[in-house]
Design brief:
Layout: E1 2-3, E2 16-25, E3 32-38, E4 41-43, E5 52-54, E6 65-67, E7 76-86, E8 94-103, H1 113-159
Antiparallel strand pairs: 1-6, 2-3, 2-7, 3-4, 5-6, 7-8
Length: 175
């Protein structure tokens, strides 16, 4: 589960030192530190030990973390504190920001009755359309076959010379 925390307050040409602190507060509990970035990554010993990954960017605009293997016990409030000190020649302004993320973990949802019905309807429609296409193809094939047979019969009627007219052929035969 990626816990997104973005702080777009730094331009590339301005150098700054950034400190990112992540806290977790269970329902009805108090904040406990779980992760810190201060030039290097540091994970505090907690219920999240070994399950947190840094997911931020090098320019420190995105300071997100990812919680691996999320459980029901991971529900609570996550706080992302960002402290950025800009390094100008004359002065060093300090910028602080805090983001709260409310996370509620629920059990994996089972299949909804509506989704099961829609899936069944999809398969019924697929079978119906396939059968309709097959029937349409057979109908068209029969129609074309009958048209070809009728054309063959008409062609033989026009091309056939009756036997009584064969003797009185208008074309003279030379020997």
């Amino acid at each position: 589960m990626k816990l997104l925390c973005i702080s777009c307050m730094k331009r590339e040409e301005v150098t700054a030192s950034t400190v990112v602190e992540w806290f977790y507060r269970p329902d009805g509990g108090k904040d406990e530190p779980i992760y810190e970035y201060r030039k290097t990554n540091h994970e505090f010993p907690s219920r999240f030990s070994g399950r947190i990954q840094w997911n931020g960017s090098k320019d420190m605009q995105d300071v997100s973390i990812t919680v691996l293997n999320v459980t029901l016990n991971d529900s609570g409030i996550y706080t992302c504190n960002i402290t950025r000190e800009f390094e100008f020649e004359i002065h060093r302004p300090l910028f602080t920001s805090s983001r709260l993320i409310h996370l509620t973990v629920v059990e994996e949802a089972g299949e909804d009755f509506t989704s099961v019905i829609s899936e069944i309807m999809m398969y019924i429609l697929l079978v119906f359309l396939t059968l309709w296409l097959l029937i349409e193809m057979v109908y068209c094939y029969r129609k074309v076959s009958k048209a070809e047979e009728a054309a063959q019969e008409n062609a033989t009627d026009y091309l056939a010379i009756p036997s009584e007219n064969k003797e009185n052929c208008a074309v003279p035969v030379e020997e």
